[in-house]
Batch of 2 targets.
Target 1
Amino acid sequence: MKRVAPPWFALRPRRAASLLFPFAPHLCCEVYEWLAGERVWEQAWPEADPALLERDTYMLVVQVNGKLRDRIEVESDASEEQLLELARSSDNVQRHLDGKAIVKEIVVPGRLVNLVVKG
């Protein structure tokens, strides 16, 4: 007689057992079969929900002449102009820009802002 866990209990552990199955097949097979009453290798691979993978903010790296000067939490939909303004307004970046001319502004959306200065 097979023991099957109630559905409200089994969803997350069942998914974990199916994801770990390639690494620990014997144990995960037993756990999955106990939880679901089915064989794990006969089931479809779980699919990721793209909505859960999106973030509202990210950590923007700010560099001056290629050296890390600050990290700023910014909105994911911020424009390049907004990123540059946030980077220039940082206190730590201001100390390294003091009295120097900005020669080039490099923006990699979603990653970093690099300010090349001279002087």
Target 2
Amino acid sequence: MRHRRDFDLALIRSAAEYLQALSNEHVRAVIVIVDGMFFQERKRIANSPRVRCCQPVYGFREHVDAGGLISYGVNLADNVRRAATYVVKILKGATPGDPAVEFPKQT
């Protein structure tokens, strides 16, 4: 038996619009996309009482550090540290194609 699920999508241009959209009592789940505006406003969003009721899933660990429940994505600080190892190898004489490609891993 198949269950039908209806989804509403909202185009959000500011943190205020996001918080207003969450005031709809029918909102039960939210996925916050990876976006500069959401990243910049992560503390304000995480501390909103309405957000605490529906607990969004975020794309970056930094949202969790700001008070969000869960993230599914890479750790930005870890990626920057890993990129620095490539820069060091290149500065020591390796050609950019020499270092092996590494994928993000959970630590």
